């Protein structure tokens, strides 16, 4: 099989120290639902990427395990540390959690990360590594019986490999949403298709990128399998050497959705009082989107907006609550004498 690669991305800025909630996290309204979702507590998201800096101050308490499938570090399966930076950035957008006044917050700061290192230092890897990594994430079980609730993959290649498709399909069949980057080969035209796999499989949740002006990023791939869009330009998150960085790409949009699934799962499964299927979780996800006015090939169902249902409910309540108008006194007319 040929190689698969990180979807190309841009490093906009590296930052020594940061203490804020990133704009992308706020844009998808994650903080608005943190209280009712316990910030995603108890849900494990598998990050299939370049590994993760496991001792980063904002991530060290969120990582529950992992495995290295690459030949880095002589193929040591126990060393899934990040020697590229991409995986650490993705993990931070999902679940970074600051233990003090310094640091940042991800979309689901109480969710946990399973680190699946399938790409080497140069950002490339064998298709077999990715395939094995997906099966590992499906089969993984934590000390207390935890299972992976979503898989995040900000990688892609031009080749449709049957074994990759089968691995993705197995995850979905077992109730695990697979969230994938659309790709950064876009030509800023919405009537042309740019395809990358596994993002273009119908079974995955394919994520395009927008900027903070809610405009489709010119690099974001367009095709008829785009499911939704999320912030992907100048995104602040964790980075190597315990630093922070602002990166751009559909790779950065994807973990916003992966982290959101940790929050949505908490809400929906509490409401239904049972474990939901992948199709049901997908339905709950797309209910929380807002169309931006672009063709479906560019935005799918629209921008992720986690609090939109609560806002609709408040609006509905406003229009259905009767006003307490002041009572009108009856005018008393003097009776005529006979």
UniProtKB/TrEMBL annotation:
Molecular functions per Gene Ontology: serine-type endopeptidase activity
UniProt keywords (A-Z) are: Hydrolase, Protease, Serine protease
- Catalytic residue positions: 49 (charge relay system), 86 (charge relay system), 251 (charge relay system)
Q: Where is the Peptidase S8/S53 domain?
A: 40-289
Q: Gene3D superfamilies given for it?
A: Peptidase S8/S53 domain (3.40.50.200)
InterPro entries per the record? Answer: Peptidase_S8/S53_dom (IPR000209), Peptidase_S8/S53_dom_sf (IPR036852), Peptidase_S8/S53_subtilisin (IPR051048), Peptidase_S8_Asp-AS (IPR023827), Peptidase_S8_His-AS (IPR022398), Peptidase_S8_Ser-AS (IPR023828), Peptidase_S8_subtilisin-rel (IPR015500), Subtilisin_Carlsberg-like (IPR034202)
Gene Ontology BP terms: proteolysis
Recorded hits in PROSITE patterns, A to Z, give:
SUBTILASE, SUBTILASE_ASP, SUBTILASE_HIS, SUBTILASE_SER
**Does this UniProt record's set of keywords contain Lyase?**
no
Q: Which family does it belong to?
A: Belongs to the peptidase S8 family.
State the name under which the record lists this protein.
Serine protease
